[in-house]
Amino acid sequence: MGGGFAGLQAARKLARAPVTITLLDRHNHHVFQPLLYQVATAGLSPGDIASPIRWILSKQQNVRVLLADVAHVALAKRQVYLEDGVGIPYDFLILATGAAHSYFGRDDWQSHAPGLKTLDDALAVRRRVLLAFEQAERQPDPERQRHLLTFVVVGGGPTGVELAGTLIEIARHTLRREYDTIDPESARVVLIEAGSSILGTFPKPLRDSARRALRRLGVEVWENATVTEIEADAVHVGGDRVPAHTILWAAGVAASPLARTLGVPLDRAGRVIVEPDLTVPGFPNVFVAGDLARFTHQTGNPLPGVAQVAKQGGAHAAKSIRRRLKGQDALPFHYRDMGNMATVGRAAAVADLGWLQLTGFVAWLFWLFVHIFFLIGFRNRVSVLLQWASSYLTYQRSVRLITGPSPDSDVTPRNSAGC
For 107-251, CATH number? Predict the structure, then answer.
């Protein structure tokens, strides 16, 4: 269940196993989530970071792909029930349905501060960001212009840092000569982090380097700043009210709500507390991988919700099923940390490889080629490389398209001809 990193990896690793695989996902495509922010900031198009699941697995004869929403799982009956009531039996089950946004009990904030988990999210964010500049261009009131050109990113993890750095670059470089009434360079970008530092999982030298890089770009970095309220046009941090037209959420995630249908112990984030071999307690034929699993047996701390954790978990589940088919016991999961990276604007990044720490342009080059290497499909890699090369040389972002309906926009064309 799930066509993300964990689900796809599991399916591929079972390609030559004597099994029949059914892969369920509510979307027909796999998304390379680490680059979603590039779609949200008009650097890449959706097709550059996503591929149809059926195409990815088209050469694998033992897989059936179904586009479907799962309503609940009956572990005792070994049945997965779809929303239309259809039940699908299984001998082994791999749960890899990922995570959703978490607003820490304030779900009412979601409409004011969208997050970034799917292609639809990315396109909605792209529209909101670009419309802010268009609305400011038509606004004669300088105070209203400042409000429209204020962007707040809540959450100082890799996604928040990457969003903030890219937003300020769009304003300072990409759009600076394209408007007559406003000065895009006057845009204000505020990055708010509740913890003591942005990029809290990185070593201190890299955190400090990222902070300096953001501030050089012009991003306001607020640390030890807890958001207490979000309105349609402002963020409250303690006693401070920050008026902002565009508020983006990168502060927290929660496990897929499907976990609550299992009737097994979950942690506070809704993740399944798994055994050392990634199985559900009491159900050795059910594996949980990726963001849905809380695995603490190796380090004592939960593993991060990143692609490499999901891929290794999916591969381990597949390997365990192969062993079970041979009458062997599943082995404990051992996570191999390959490092952590984040970009901090144009040609700048931080990379923690454990044995080596990189910053600046060298780290950005490393980040670039690692991400291109892991993109699925030759066309995707070539397209992304060419677009990034063009963006680096020209400061342009090639996919600045405003599409789709916007009920809160005052720049909707009067008719289909755009008049």
Answer: 3.50.50.100
Instruction: Mark whether 162 is an active-site residue.
Output: yes
Give the tens place of pLDDT for each residue, 375-398: 766 566 777 777 766 666 566 666
Q: What does the alpha-carbon distance between residue 100 and residue 124 come to, in Å, rounded to a whole number?
A: 16
- DSSP letters of 337-351? ---EEEE-STT-EEE
* 207: nearest Cα among 350, 80, 85, 79: 350
- Catalytic residue from among 83, 137, 143, 162: 162
Share of the chain above pLDDT 70, in %: 92
Q: Do domains 5-26+68-101+253-325 and 107-251 have the same CATH topology?
A: yes
Q: Which of 415, 348, 357, 405 is nearest to 161 (CA)?
A: 348
Q: What is the pTM of this model?
A: 0.88
Question: Which class in CATH covers the domain with range 5-26+68-101+253-325?
Answer: alpha beta
Pairing relationship of beta strands 188-192 and 21-25 according to DSSP bridges: unpaired
pLDDT digits (tens, 9 = 90+) for 111-144: 999 999 999 999 999 999 999 999 999 999 999 9
Q: What is the mean pLDDT of residues 46-62?
A: 91
Name the burial class of residue 246, with classes exposed (0-12), middle (13-18) and buried (19+) by CB atoms within 10 angstroms of its CB. buried
Query: How many residues appear in the chain?
Result: 419
Query: What is the identity of the amino acid at 198?
Result: I
